[in-house]
Amino acid sequence: MGLIQLIKNLFRKGGAVLGVVQSLNNITDHPKINVDAREYRRIERDLRYFKGSFDAIKFYNTYGDQKERPYTTLNMMQVVCRRMASLLYNKQSKITVDTRPAKIDAAGETQSYKQQDEANTFIQSVLDANDFGKNFERYLESCLAMGGLAIRPYVDTETGSIKLAWIQAPNFFPLRSNTNDITEAAIATPTIRTEGGTSVYYTLLEFHEWHPSGYLITNELYRSDVKGQVGVQVPLNTLYPDLVEKATLTGYTRPLFVYLKPAGFNNKSLTSPLGIGFCDNALSTLKQINDTYDQFNFEIRMGQRRVAVPSNMIQVAFDEGGQQKPRQVFDPDQNVFLAVDSGMDAKGVTDLTSPIRASDYISSMNHFLKTLEMQTGLSSGTFSFDGQAVKTATEVVSENSMTYQTRNSHLTMVERAVKELVVSICQLAASTVIDGQTLYTGNIPTVDQVAVDFDDGIFTDKGANADYWIKLQAAGLCADWQAIMHVQGVTEDQAKQIAAEIAGATADQANDPQDALLGGNGDGDA
Questions:
Q1: In whole angstroms, what is the distance from residue 251 CA to residue 444 CA?
Q2: What's residue 491's pLDDT?
Q3: Which InterPro entries has this protein been placed in (predicted)?
Q4: 3-state secondary structure at position 249
Q5: 3-class secondary structure, 345
Q6: More confident residue, 140 or 494
């Protein structure tokens, strides 16, 4: 860092003290942000549980000395959130867009278009380029753990394509909201840079606001020498030479970000627009699970076999050079035997090993895991510490299970967020011109024109499903292609094509002259 830049930083610090330059300790201190700071302390606590990052355990040993040992956790919050995220969205889920009117034939039946909708083709290319299927499932874990996730599409000017930025709960700050949605927000992007051999912490605040002139995006950059402090405002070109301070966009009907929060009311802050974590009301149970698991591991360590032997059985002799030469009585690589000089019998051996209370700890763990299942709305038997209470996947996640019902509650929020994201992507692409060409020139879909097909296969017994549709078809209660579509999991057009092929093959067999020769259709005597 040059001398001139150092002088500028000193002037900014002085200006911040005098109130000339804006200075922030925390992002929530910004005058535009009106959110209870306690919400972000709650998010920080959730993050600690999600990471399994806890302070070391301090204890006093037999001699009264204070010692430390690592706190061993089972990290069930991450396990629960990963499990639910995989049930909510995975690579089998499909997103389709169709902005065209329904195509009706002369008979009044709906017909499918031969070509894909332009909007659908564009959206699929954007989602594939961003590996949306994998990344969305991964970031859903963070959303469930900390109570929220924002997705912000932006234009990569180097490639001329739409990219997706994933904003996790600690970096998203509502500005304005209603009972259904957050319409204005600030997004924080922290950056660490080394200047003059020391770490400097930068925070870019990106404000998304609605104004009479249009959709306004304002950028502010802050610099701090202290970790955890936002610092003083500095010029944007310090880090972002191509970024403008303000940009007004027109033609937008919704924000350029999508905020997703888990289902359920935020009972920790009744007026907060932020969501609540999937396990926020089960933190005490998570602590009990972690404490029990930690104590169990420590007891196993302390339960290592210890045998007291007379000190004369472990003698050390010295050679002429003064080097220790123990008399070989025990294996030198073991630590089981302890020398005790207490008048023991010369040949006496005392086993000091204490039994490990494994069954008690396992029973306690399973009790707390059942409590966690109840608090998070998961089916009984989803988790088991000893592996003896194992259920089949169909039993745990069947259509009538608690897990299935909980999943459906969250799917409503996920589906809405995905649909809004598609609309935001199309609006951004339609308003972006690179090298004289607009990124997207098709119709802008509405939320109702976006369909999300979630994978329900893991909740369905495929054998029972096949029997159900076969019986309906045999009773004449559904068409052949309908049964094929539901049993084989294909589209309506594919099902009709398969049904036609089956009907054609059946007709060919009925007209085969060999049938008459072999008596395949004869009713008379041979």
A1: 11
A2: 78
A3: Phage_portal_A118-type (IPR006432), Portal_protein_SPP1_Gp6-like (IPR021145)
A4: strand
A5: coil
A6: 140
**3-state helix/strand/coil string of 434-491:** ECCEECCCCCCCCHHHEEEECCCHHHCCHHHHHHHHHHHHHCCCCCHHHHHHHHHCCC
What is the C-alpha separation between 159 and 76, in angstroms, rounded? 41
Q: Residue range 367-376: average pLDDT?
A: 94
- Say what the pLDDT of residue 102 is: 76
How far apart CA 36 and CA 28 sit, in angstroms, is 8
Rounded to an integer, what distance in angstroms lies between the CA atom of residue 346 and that of residue 339? 12
Which residues are within 8 A (CB) of 238 and not within 5 positions of it... i.e. 6 or more apart? 202, 221, 223
**Contact of 232 with 224, CB cutoff 8 Å:** yes
Q: Which two tokens stand for residue 90?
A: 């995975």
- 517 has a pLDDT exceeding 50: no
Comparing 246 with 23, which gets the higher pLDDT?
Answer: 246
Q: What is the pTM of this model?
A: 0.79
Q: What is the pLDDT of residue 180?
A: 72
Q: Give dist(CA 253, CA 424) in Å, integer.
A: 9
Q: CA-CA distance, 477 to 479, in Å (whole number)? A: 7
SS3 58: strand
Summarize pLDDT for 408-440 with one digit per residue, the tens: 999 999 999 999 999 999 999 999 998 889 999
Instruction: Give the HSE-up count for residue 341: Cα atoms under 13 Å, Cβ half-sphere.
Output: 4
CB burial readout 353-377, b (16+ within 10 A) else e: eeeeeeeebbebbbebbbebbebbb
6, pLDDT greater than 90: no
Q: Is the pLDDT of residue 448 over 70?
A: yes
Diameter of the chain by CA atoms?
115
- For residues 31 and 175, the answer to whether their CB atoms sit within 8 Å is no
Contact assessment for residue 187 and residue 223, using Cβ atoms and an 8 Å cutoff: no
**Single-letter amino acid code for the residue at 27:** I
For residue 21, give Cα distances in angstroms to 10, 14, 191, 195, 272.
12, 8, 21, 22, 30
What spatial distance separates the first Cα and last Cα of the chain, rounded to whole Å?
104
| Rounded Cα distance, 251 and 423, in Å | 12
Residue 390: φ, ψ to 5°:
-80, 135
Ranked by mean pLDDT, which of 388-392, 452-456, 482-486 comes out on top? 482-486
Q: Count of residues for the chain? A: 526
- Cβ neighbours of 167 (radius 10 Å): 22
| Residue 473 CB-half CA count within 13 A | 16
pLDDT tens-digit series, residues 231-267: 999 999 999 998 999 999 988 999 999 999 999 999 9
Q: In this structure, what token pair is assigned to residue 395?
A: 């039993």
Sign of CA dihedral 290, 269, 178, 182: negative
Question: The tokens of 21 are what?
Answer: 């330059």
Q: Is the pLDDT of residue 356 over 70?
A: yes
CA distance 136 to 347: 68
Burial 271-290 (b: 16+ CB within 10 A, else e): ebbbbbbbbbebbebbebbb
